[in-house]
Sequence to fold (389 residues):
Amino acid sequence: MFRSLLACVSLTVFAAVQCLAETPALPSSASMPIPTAPQVDAHAYIVVDYRTGKILAAKEAVARMEPASLTKLMTSYIVFQELAAGKLKLDEQVMVSEHAWRSEGSRTFIELGKPVSVEDLILGMIVQSGNDATIALAERIAGTEETFSQLMNANAKRLGMVGSHFENSSGLPSPQHFTTARDLSLLANAIIREYPQYYKWFSVHEFVHNGIKQQNRNGLLEKDPTVDGLKTGHTDSAGFCLVTSALRDGMRLVSVVMGSGSMKERESASAALLNYGFTFYDTKLIVKGGAVLANSRVWKGQSASVDLGIQDDLYITVPRGEADHIKTATDIQSRLIAPLSLDSNVGTLRVFTANQTLATQPLHPLKNVEAGGWWRRLIDTIKLWFVKG
Fold:
């Protein structure tokens, strides 16, 4: 009896151990699949990381859409160009034309024939989304709105906005006035990157002109302290649109929502998409520009060796939890022969995980290496006859 009971217990224990051995380990959080983006009320949307340009979620992102007042982002971009170049001054007084004064749609309530400062016109364009202020700025820069639209399209082409064409500065509907969610994300990134000194205007909650207090129409500025821009848009045909940027713990995301059914829905959609991106992705500085990544022998140069690195900071966006698994390696050309400049491509930096290559960057000398004297060049030429590779 006792032997039979012992045998039964032994078999039970063995079976349990065998079962545990055959059960696969649960995946770590880093290897868990990222859920699909939330369903939101929008005909088109995109969420991108500002530093890396990585698209975290998208729907109909390259479909042609009517931009409405999101057009004013391109107008703002050109105004910022003029300010940065010194061709436009914030305290300059601009005379309001009849064309600007009679503009349809949202207004800043500037007065016909009366001068208004450039800064007030900018605030009217960005905060109140005033078509009158926008057209006044376009006319000040290019003479007419038609000429200004040529500047808009030239800048769109330069920024890689391949799905966009602009016919006016304010966003009033027109058959050949269109853009895409992807293009608007490129434009928003360019504004933040190139003109940080002017980007602050997109987070202004309200301003007063002619005794009239005007509120920013981007309700997320009030609801989310990490949101600091950018622009709203609406027409009956375009629906409700919103380009938003938020900065959380050093990570900046830009979302574009087009064709929502209401102001509330465009804000809810933008908030949901931003939260999705921040929750499931992480952007990390992997290698700092100018940091020494390797040192290599230089032949026929005034210096016998040179430090190597990359020119700009390298950021990578990965699923949250995977940043700790990123590795780097350098592949250097077998023979570096002077002269070498800072732009000389002398190898490759690889950024990878166990499963994939995430990025590659060219390696460059971190200082110029001039050619050596005739004796150094002669000696190294002889030595190279005996160097393999």
Summary: Confidence is low (pLDDT under 50) at residues 1-30. The chain has two domains: 44-282, 288-384.
